[in-house]
Amino acid sequence: MLRQSIYEMFRRPFYLRLILDQIYVMGVQSFVLVCVTGLATGCVMALQFGFGLAKFGGTLYVPKISSLTILREMGPVFTSLLVAGRIGSGIAAEVASMKVTQQIDAIRALGTSPIKRIVIPRLIGSVVTLPTLTLFANYIGLWGAMVICKTELGIGQAYFISKALETIKSVDLFTGMLKTVVFAVFIAIAGCWKGFNAEGGTEGVGQATTWVVVASSIFIMVSDFFLTKLFILTVYPH
Question: Suppose 216 and one of 21, 62, 84, 223 were both cysteines; which one would form an S-S bond, judging by CB atoms 3.0 to 4.6 Å apart?
Answer without folding.
Answer: 84
